[in-house]
């Protein structure tokens, strides 16, 4: 079981969180004309990376904040966690 | 029965407490502190089971977790449990056990015929033999294998024992209480670190209990006892025996199984049988020791052949002789220690040492004691069927290839030592890439992967002094990092005998003309020839060889067999062992009971039960409940001998003619506040929300980004910046997360807060033509006329002193209202409605009538919003705004979603107006068409229309728009039904929606 540091609550067990997928996906702006390809890639296409991955988790049984987690998908190592609005270099 | 193999004195058992127990129906006696194995051996019982594949007689091979054979069916307190190792099961008064894997009995076993058909059962025999002909598998092979094989029978009874889970955090978790565990724990504890020290056996001390060493002028055992005594007194230390750390998971999470009550005849009141500990440790010290390796020779699975360390443990811990005429066969000095213990107890062992002329302190001691030693000698084969009665031995050439003349000598047991294999399972599970250590012919942990440090024998260090030094230092250094304390501990004086180098030899060649079975894996009956066949057939990867031959599989996990298997492969392949590599170690290290894994999450504890504030009223009024997620909802209120069908019809009918009241507390409720609340709703729902006035409700549909309908419900504008959203019962949690996702991640600029208020409000739906009359009684001070409270209107009021919210919304298609009060007042509200509704013939109605009402109205619910439908499919496309953008809108342009013959919701009526249509049935054009008959749609929900008094169903049908009036067939192969039907509008009642506005 992973141990995830919620930026608001501290170290918490994985079973308090729910997984939210790739955090680098950006929703196209509302009312903007975009191509089918752009929309499809937003809705459907995800990379299944091996290695370092920036992903979303929600601290569901805690503060309910969506957070960003830098995790290695192969080793499960967590390098860093961020608040949703934090700039990640 | 006398305990003929029990020594007069010695051992750590309590001779003052004699215990009786039964094995295969026969009564024996042992002592408190015995294991089932030690007590059986004390009674001269060595035949305990039959082997897995060939059903050969099986005895004892080890003395603990390493035991591959002695697996029994245990009976305790009227319960039975399979797969219990006799070497781990502590004896208690009244214990009963039986052999497994033998039929009809351990002494006469039909399956043993396999032994003589061995040509039939070589490596991969399951794959080769039983794959053809295919039809034989179920009828012939499988039943035969099921009957003949297996390691016991699982109980089919409900397990009444209690199992607990415990979550714990510590600075250092130390797995194993041998010398390295004790030393590191002691040093770390002195530095104030929070420690858990776990020992799988009942007694602490590990190898110190059986080895002839001296630490700080005390015997090893006394030193261990004094350290444990001191640790137990320290507040920062938890010391646990009977506790196996069996799994090392991510982020230094380890799981430990504590057998709290398995050693007792009965679990004490308020105690669990077992407890599973989830331990998050900052540092992990693996002091799991090592397991002696077998030597491989002919018939080396005969009962009476066992590990020399086990023989020593039976002697020193239990005061039991595994034989009175022992032969010790060794390739290193460990065998000598066992022989010396025999000799000290008046038994004359013979040592066969494969080495040419080894020299060491221990060997000298054996010589001085007058023990007979034969160097360059090996056991060629054990003789005896159910128990060893002699051994064929021979001299072996220096290159270990040629055997001299084979001679037979009498013996009643053969104690083997093929050197030691570090127990690296936990380190390997942690992700540690293990490395091969040439000097000991075994793998040891490499660089730490997580925060694990492996010490002592588990790390391939076999001298006590070095082990203690490393362990004190590790305990001190790791704890210092955490606590910043630095207490120096003086290193005790250690006296131990020096050993000489072990022999790399491990497998005795077959003598000319003999074809003895030489076993590598004792639990799975894998012999040298099986591995040879697998390699001959082209299997190369050790992982494939493992699966093909079953080497190192099952509960044993290769504890005794792993390295010998690798050695054999490397020899045949002419590779070094590290090039062959080893198979992956996976948790659990030892079998864990299902009960322990499940813990307290059984029955009603498996999930919470949510009840509405009116639950007790429903109970008192004969409600029959149904699970709605974790909620319990009244399905119907039973009157007299009514069936579900009759009751739901009566309740629904009463709503259509008079007035009914339904508990709708379970609907999800979300409070939405903030200046941008309307904007959020406008983006989330498909319809327009910016112009909804205060005091008005609106029905809305929300989509996922892929265009599929996610949920529906009404949202009411309570005040300028305050909305009350309702969701379906099932989607309440998902919708909240969905809103939070968009507010936090996608549109953080929106100034809105959302919070679940599902449990804050009790809700009652009041529906039916007389509902307004009832409302007038409930709220005499309000104008609830069609003008005062129009359809989709909202009022805040007072229900006889209780704050109430009134929404004029309808799910039933009738004139209807929903009243919410704070949860604590739910029962008060409900009783008022029932009381004041008497004169209008009010009746409560359950979910079944609720479904009937919504189905015949054509109102969609979960069975239509099933994660596959878009607004058009469910006739909700009128609610899709053309002007504004919203979540999922862009997806609605997808080609499949705009196709002309897109599926759409329709109504379905059987032509005979009598036959009920099973939900889930398929709609087809031609009932007699050849299979596969093309499916046009499916029945999503069925009811008995109370309005028309005939069956009515909703269906999602291809080109549904143009199918009204068509005659089709409903087919349900499951129920073996074919029903001719007519397709009608999904709005079967009040298609113009006049009643809700009346
Ligand atoms: Zn949090």
Molecular structure report:
- The complex is a heterodimer of chains A (89) and B (998).
- Chain A is mostly beta strands.
- In chain A, 9% of the residues lie in helices and 37% in strands.
- Chain A has one helix at 36-43, and strands spanning 3-6, 10-13, 18-22, 52-58, 66-72, 78-83.
- In chain A, the strands form 2 sheets. A 4-stranded antiparallel beta sheet of chain A has the order 3-4-5-6, with no helix packed on it.
- Chain A starts with a strand and ends in a 6-residue tail after the last strand.
- The model of chain B has no long low-confidence stretch (mean pLDDT 93).
- In chain B, helix 5 packs parallel to helix 6, helix 12 packs across helix 14 and helix 18 (644-657) crosses helix 23 (847-857).
- Chain B has 7 domains: 1-158, Ubiquitin-like (UB roll), CATH 3.10.20; 163-290 and 422-486, FAD/NAD(P)-binding domain, CATH 3.50.50.60; 294-418 and 501-511, FAD/NAD(P)-binding domain (3-Layer(bba) Sandwich), CATH 3.50.50.60; 518-583, Arc Repressor Mutant, subunit A (Orthogonal Bundle), CATH 1.10.10; 647-666 and 761-867, 2-Layer Sandwich (Gyrase A, domain 2), CATH 3.30.1360; 667-757 and 868-892, 2-Layer Sandwich (Alpha-Beta Plaits); 899-992, Elongation Factor Tu (Ef-tu), domain 3 (Beta Barrel).
- Chain B has 23 helices and 50 strands.
- Zinc ion is lined by residues 6, 8-9, 59, 62-63, 65 of chain A.
- Zinc ion (ZN) is lined by residues 6, 8-9, 59, 62-63, 65 of chain A.
Residue windows where pLDDT falls under 50 for at least 5 positions of chain A: none
Q: Per CATH, what is the topology of the largest domain in chain B?
A: FAD/NAD(P)-binding domain
Net shape of chain B? elongated
Order of helices and strands of chain A: EEEHEEE
Low-confidence stretches of chain B: none
């Amino acid at each position: 079981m992973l141990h995830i540091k919620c930026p608001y609550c501290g170290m918490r067990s994985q079973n308090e969180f729910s997984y939210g997928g790739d955090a680098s996906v950006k929703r196209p702006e509302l009312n903007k004309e975009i191509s089918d390809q752009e929309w499809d890639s937003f809705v459907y296409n995800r990379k299944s990376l091996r290695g370092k991955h920036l992903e979303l988790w929600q601290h569901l049984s805690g503060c309910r904040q969506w957070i960003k987690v830098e995790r290695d998908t192969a080793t499960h190592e967590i390098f860093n966690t961020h608040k949703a609005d934090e700039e990640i270099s | 029965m006398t305990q003929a193999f029990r020594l007069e004195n010695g051992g750590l058992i309590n001779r003052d407490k004699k215990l009786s127990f039964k094995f295969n129906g026969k009564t024996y006696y042992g002592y408190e502190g015995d294991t089932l194995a030690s007590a059986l051996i004390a009674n001269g019982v060595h035949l305990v089971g039959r082997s897995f594949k060939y059903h050969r007689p099986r005895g004892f091979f080890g003395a603990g977790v390493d035991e591959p054979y002695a697996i029994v069916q245990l009976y305790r307190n009227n319960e039975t449990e399979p797969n219990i190792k006799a070497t781990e099961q502590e004896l208690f008064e009244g214990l009963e056990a039986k052999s497994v894997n033998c039929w009809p009995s351990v002494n006469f076993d039909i399956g043993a015929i396999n032994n003589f058909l061995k040509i039939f059962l070589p490596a991969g025999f399951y794959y080769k033999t039983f794959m053809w002909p295919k039809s034989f598998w179920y009828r012939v092979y499988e039943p035969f294998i099921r009957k003949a094989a297996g390691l016991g029978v699982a109980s089919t009874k409900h397990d009444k024992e209690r199992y607990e889970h415990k979550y714990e955090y510590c600075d250092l978790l130390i797995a194993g209480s041998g010398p390295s565990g004790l030393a590191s724990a002691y040093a770390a504890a002195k530095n104030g670190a929070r420690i858990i020290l776990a020992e799988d056996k009942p007694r602490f001390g590990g190898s110190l209990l059986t080895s002839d060493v001296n630490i700080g002028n005390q015997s090893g055992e006394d030193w261990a006892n004094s350290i444990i005594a001191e640790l137990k007194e320290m507040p920062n230390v938890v010391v646990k025996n009977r506790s196996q750390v069996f799994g090392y998971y991510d982020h230094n999470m380890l799981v430990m199984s504590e057998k709290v009550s398995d050693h007792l005849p009965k679990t004490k009141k308020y105690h669990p049988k077992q407890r599973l500990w989830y331990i998050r440790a900052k540092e992990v010290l693996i002091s799991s020791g090592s397991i002696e390796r077998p030597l491989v020779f002919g018939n080396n699975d005969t009962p009476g052949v066992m590990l020399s360390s086990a023989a020593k443990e039976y002697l020193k811990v239990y005061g039991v002789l595994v034989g009175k005429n022992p032969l010790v066969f060794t390739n290193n000095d460990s065998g000598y220690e066992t022989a010396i213990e025999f000799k000290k107890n008046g038994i004359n062992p013979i040592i066969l040492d494969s080495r040419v002329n080894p020299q060491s302190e221990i060997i000298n001691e054996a010589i001085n004691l007058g023990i007979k030693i034969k160097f360059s000698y090996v056991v060629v084969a054990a003789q005896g069927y159910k128990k060893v009665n002699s051994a064929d031995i021979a001299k072996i050439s220096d290159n270990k290839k040629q055997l001299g003349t084979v001679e037979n000598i009498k013996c009643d047991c053969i104690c083997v030592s093929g050197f030691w294999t570090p127990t690296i399972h936990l380190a390997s599970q942690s992700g540690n890439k293990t490395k091969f250590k040439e000097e000991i012919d075994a793998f040891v942990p490499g660089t730490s992967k997580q925060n694990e440090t492996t010490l002592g024998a588990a790390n391939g260090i076999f001298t006590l002094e070095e082990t203690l030094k490393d362990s004190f230092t590790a305990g001190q250094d790791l704890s210092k990092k955490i606590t910043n304390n630095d207490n120096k501990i003086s290193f005790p004086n250690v006296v131990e005998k020096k050993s000489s180098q072990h022999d790399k030899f491990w497998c005795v060649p077959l003598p000319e003309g003999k074809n003895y079975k030489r076993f590598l894996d004792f639990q799975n009956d894998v012999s040298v020839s099986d591995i040879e066949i697998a390699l001959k057939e082209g299997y190369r990867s050790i992982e494939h060889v493992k699966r093909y031959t079953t080497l190192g599989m099952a509960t044993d996990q290769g504890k005794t067999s792993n390295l010998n298997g690798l050695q054999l492969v490397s020899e045949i392949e002419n590779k070094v062992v590290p090039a062959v590599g080893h198979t992956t170690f996976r948790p659990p290290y030892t079998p864990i009971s299902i009960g322990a894994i499940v813990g307290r999450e059984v029955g009603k504890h498996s999930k919470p039960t949510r009840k509405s504030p009116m639950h007790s009223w429903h109970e008192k009024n004969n409600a029959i409940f149904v699970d709605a997620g974790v909620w319990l909802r009244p399905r119907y209120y039973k009157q007299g001998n009514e069936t579900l069908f009759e009751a739901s019809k009566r309740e629904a009918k009463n709503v259509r003619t008079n007035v009914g009241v339904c508990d709708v507390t379970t609907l999800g409720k979300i409070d939405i506040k903030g200046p941008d609340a309307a904007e959020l709703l406008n983006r989330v729902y498909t319809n327009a929300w910016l112009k909804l006035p205060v005091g008005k409700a609106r029905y809305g549909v929300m989509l996922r980004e892929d265009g599929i309908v996610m949920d529906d419900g009404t949202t009411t504008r309570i005040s300028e910046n305050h909305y009350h959203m309702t969701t379906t019962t099932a989607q309440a949690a998902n919708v909240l997360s969905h809103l939070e996702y968009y507010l936090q991640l996608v549109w953080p600029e929106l100034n809105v807060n959302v919070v679940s208020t599902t449990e804050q409000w009790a809700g009652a739906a009041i529906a039916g033509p007389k509902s307004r009359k009832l409302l007038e009684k409930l709220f005499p001070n309000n104008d609830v006329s069609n003008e005062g409270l129009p359809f989709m209107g909202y009022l805040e009021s007072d229900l006889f002193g209780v704050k109430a919210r009134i929404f004029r919304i309808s799910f039933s298609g009738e004139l209807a209202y929903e009243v919410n009060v704070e949860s604590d007042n739910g029962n008060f509200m409900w009783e008022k409605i029932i009381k004041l509704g008497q004169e209008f013939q009010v009746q409560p109605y359950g979910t079944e009538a609720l479904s009937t009402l919504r189905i015949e109205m054509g109102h969609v619910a979960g069975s239509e919003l099933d994660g596959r439908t878009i607004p058009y499919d469910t006739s909700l496309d009128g609610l899709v705004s053309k002007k504004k953008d919203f979540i999922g809108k862009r997806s609605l342009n997808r080609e499949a979603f705009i196709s002309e013959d897109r599926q759409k919701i329709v109504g379905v009526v059987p032509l005979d107006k009598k036959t009920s249509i099973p939900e889930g049935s398929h709609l087809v054009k031609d009932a007699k068409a050849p299979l596969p008959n093309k499916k046009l749609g499916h029945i999503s929900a069925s009811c008995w229309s109370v309005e028309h008094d005939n069956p009515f169903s909703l269906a999602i049908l291809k080109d549904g728009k143009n199918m009204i009036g068509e005659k089709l067939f409903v087919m349900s192969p499951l129920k073996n039904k074919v029903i001719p039907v007519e397709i009608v509008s999904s709005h079967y009642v009040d298609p113009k929606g006049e009643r809700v506005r009346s």
